[in-house]
Please model this.
Amino acid sequence: MNILLTAAGSHGDVAPYTGLGARLRAAGHQVTLATHDSHAPLVRAAGLGFRTLPGDPGATPAHRADRDAPGTPTTRRALMRRAAAFVAHLGTGLADAVTPDTDLLLLSTTTAPLGWHVAEAHGIPSAGAYLVPTVPTRAFAPVLSGGRSLGSWGNRAAGRLSLRVVDRLHADAARALRTRLGLPPASPAAVRRRVEAADRPVLHGFSEHVVPRPADWRPGLHVTGYWWPHLAPDARLPPAVEDFLTAGPPPVSIGFGSMAAADAERLSTVAVRALRHAGLRGLLLSGNAGLTSADSPTDDVLTVSAPVPHALLFPRVAAAVHHCGAGTAAAALRAGIPSVPVPFTADQPFWAARLAALGAATPALPVTALTRTASLDYAATRLAAALTEATTTPALRTRARAVAHHLTAEDGPTTALHTLTP
Model:
């Protein structure tokens, strides 16, 4: 088959599809991943074809849809405003990415609400390939609700409301896309209901050990296990990181991936002070947050500017402080290390709550607790306490290792392959 994967967003929103795509390609399928230009090297390194999508979050500010918003939004209203700007750019790119010879269109959570219209216009079979659960259920509240259960009735009602919010968010872009594709008018809600009624398969790239499949989900909603990002067999950590790791006891990794800090200097200061208060060595993964120890040089803290694969780094550290995006949370579990979740936005509080419920993480410490408190020392003390708990509580490491053991028995991409091509 000629399979087109579509994924949009940050590194964590795209990288797992390289692992899924590589497995589909190894089975003999022709696989192309349509995503943003900044992810092209990642896609091509996995041996996949590449097509471009607009709205690149890794582009320069002048070319981003969210160029007027400093830092990652931490309120729901700001998140919706940024999402609306992102969606407005995405529809045209999806239409351009699909070619007549496409046999199967695999749609991510972010591309599905517009991708369904493209699939309809071309008469192409489509399936969902999601990194987060989106279907309403009594088992848990929607992922954007903050990870707190609202009770069985409340969870399902909130899930339905969440879908209506997504429909409204895509209304203008869907209208323009259907006009361009020559399709009759149809609201996003109507198209979504048609897709649901058709019982099209949806693959969920996470583990049932982390999010058990809800009993009230319809057949066809599959939880396959994680799709780990493609990693070249000869991949290695940078020499400076390798030297630091071997120079002393395992450090703590602190990094927030694609999350941008409104005050990078303050967040860096809090991180370095927390490491010192806790008496720990640390790796500051600079990322979009701009973490650095440049103003507080010490032999026990190393700033890492270049991206490093979590699959290589996390097994070598004592614990990881991270934003708890789906991919980073999964990587920490896979490595069997405790997490200190510092969620910024979106689905991150949901995954933070999941890790804590598994006993593999400390309670979530929202980023606003580190960036908006009056005292730097108070923020550093809170983070230091979490670091101490993560590195000295045996039960956290025991539970993290137990989950890691379960994850090693799963092969998400192969399960996905067999589901798509029985």
User: Anything to note?
Assistant: The first strand starts at residue 2 and ends at 6. Residues 138 and 151 are 7 Å apart (CA to CA).
